[in-house]
């Protein structure tokens, strides 16, 4: 009989607790609108430089945080009451079971076990709730700073490289495994020119520093120099792709990729042949770039060499040998006669042509897998990315060890540095694009959802610092390039 009455009492107590808990939640919900109104009035009375939309978003987020913690506090109180009740029941059972007394050690063991279970439940609830809040906050903030502006769809196979013209009119160039290179209007997303001179995959594209001329490298063992003439169409209003979805990460299948059969490149003007063809390699030409001034060009090949050419005569000036395996990329310094080549042999090499009579070479070792790219920054720094999932920042005056190392969760492809702001864009095999500063601090991750972002490996990134609409471009093996607007002042302020 005492046990039955105790059970009835426990049932009544539990019922009262549930009733009290529901009343507390109703009181919380009923006061939310009043609290939100008061907070808005307080914010409006403050002198703030934040836009009203950002302030409202922050208000909603902090309101969610307050409600979550209030609910956690109420649940915490209920759990503590349950612990006390359980301890009382254990003590009562210790006095009545078969008239035998349980030792203090046994009671302590049972009580500790039950308390541990409830404490673990509380911790799990707390972590899940706060993690959800923080994730929501980070996602919203990232989307406010990094917005998808335009998608460039028209290739029939993956896009290996993306580049932005250095002269007016400013256009976007893409190089694809479908054997073509396309030029695009950045503002409208319309294809302006199609180059079809190669008979193999087009692996890279770079624009001449002063003329409307492009340099492309191909799997047909050549690099082509070709001229283009474009007339930009009238820009149309751009839809805000950032508002298309509120989800952060989903899985995709091949059927989600852009339909190549409905591309917009079939009716654009076509350039069928080059002005000059560079033909000294015995393997795939994986990359090419212009030296400062545009009178010479350098190519990198799977035949383990890099070649330096005179553009006007197409003659081979230097053959750069030394890498033990296939080359993966080459890049030139924006103001000096310096070239950096990267390779599958886990190294990258710096070639110095500032003295016309002799060229020197320096070898950088530090990666444990293929170096996918190495690029120059302003000053004496080189940034390298690798399949070993790291990015390293190097000082050209001290080649023995990097001055900063960025560790990631996926292989890194062709990186690019925003020279003016010293921000590195990292395209990954896992479809992500992340932004870091030169000291290795992560600044942002470009948003991905079920309706925006890349659906397959991101191959390359390219900054265009002065463009008013898009200042970062990415391309991937999902056959599309994407233009992003990165609010750099806000990004650096977040840091």
TrEMBL record:
Pfam families with a match to the protein in the record = WD40 (PF00400)
Each WD repeat occupies one of these ranges, namely: 152-194, 195-226, 278-319, 320-361, 364-404
Q: Where is the composition biased (Polar residues)?
A: 22-31
Principal cellular location given in the protein's record: cytoplasm
Query: Which ranges are annotated Acidic residues under compositional bias?
Result: 246-264
In terms of superkingdom, the source organism counts as Eukaryota
Q: Which SMART domains match?
A: WD40
Write out the annotated subcellular location. Cytoplasm; Nucleus
Keywords from the named record:
Coiled coil, Cytoplasm, Nucleus, Repeat, WD repeat
- What is the designated name of this protein? WD repeat-containing protein 37
């Amino acid at each position: 009989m005492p046990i039955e009455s105790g059970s009835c009492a426990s049932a009544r107590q539990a019922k009262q607790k549930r009733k009290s808990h529901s009343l507390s939640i109703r009181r919380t919900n009923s006061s939310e609108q009043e609290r939100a109104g008061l907070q808005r009035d307080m914010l409006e009375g403050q002198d703030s430089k934040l836009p009203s939309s950002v302030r409202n978003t922050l208000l909603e987020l902090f309101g969610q945080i307050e409600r979550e913690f209030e609910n956690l506090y109420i649940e915490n109180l209920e759990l503590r009451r349950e612990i006390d009740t359980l301890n009382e029941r254990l003590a009562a059972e210790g006095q009545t079971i078969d008239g035998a007394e349980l030792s203090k050690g046994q009671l302590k063991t049972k009580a500790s076990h039950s308390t541990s279970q409830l404490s673990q439940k509380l911790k799990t609830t707390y972590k899940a709730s706060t993690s959800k809040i923080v994730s929501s906050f980070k996602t919203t903030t990232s989307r406010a700073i990094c917005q998808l502006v335009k998608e460039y769809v028209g290739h029939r196979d993956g896009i290996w490289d993306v580049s932005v013209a250095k002269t007016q009119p400013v256009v976007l160039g893409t190089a694809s495994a479908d054997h073509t290179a396309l030029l695009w209007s950045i503002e409208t997303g319309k294809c302006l020119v199609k180059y079809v001179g190669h008979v193999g995959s087009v692996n890279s594209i770079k624009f001449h520093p002063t003329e409307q001329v492009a340099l492309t490298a191909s799997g047909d063992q050549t690099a082509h120099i070709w001229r283009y003439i474009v007339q930009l169409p009238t820009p149309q209003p751009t839809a805000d792709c950032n508002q298309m979805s509120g989800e952060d990460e989903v899985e995709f299948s091949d059927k989600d990729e852009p339909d190549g059969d409905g591309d917009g490149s079939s009716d654009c003007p076509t350039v069928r042949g080059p002005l000059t063809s560079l033909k000294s390699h015995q393997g795939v030409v994986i990359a090419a770039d212009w030296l400062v001034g545009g009178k010479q060009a350098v190519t990198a090949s799977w035949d383990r060499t890099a070649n330096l050419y005179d553009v006007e005569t197409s003659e081979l000036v230097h053959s750069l040998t030394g890498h033990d395996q296939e080359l993966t990329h080459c890049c030139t310094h924006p103001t000096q006669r310096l070239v950096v080549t990267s390779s599958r042999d886990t190294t990258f090499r710096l070639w110095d042509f500032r003295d016309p009579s002799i060229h020197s070479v320096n070898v950088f070792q530090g990666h444990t897998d293929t170096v996918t790219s190495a690029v120059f920054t302003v000053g004496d720094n080189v940034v390298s990315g690798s399949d070993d999932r790291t990015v390293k920042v190097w000082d050209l005056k001290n080649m023995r060890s990097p001055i900063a190392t960025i560790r990631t969760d996926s292989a890194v492809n062709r990186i690019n540095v925003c020279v003016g702001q010293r921000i590195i864009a990292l395209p990954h095999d896992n479809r992500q694009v992340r932004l870091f500063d030169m000291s290795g601090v992560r600044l942002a991750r470009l948003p991905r959802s079920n309706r925006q972002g890349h659906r397959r490996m991101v191959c390359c990134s390219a900054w265009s610092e002065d463009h008013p609409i898009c200042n970062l471009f990415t391309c991937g093996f999902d056959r599309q390039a994407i233009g992003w607007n990165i609010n750099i002042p806000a990004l650096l302020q977040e840091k």
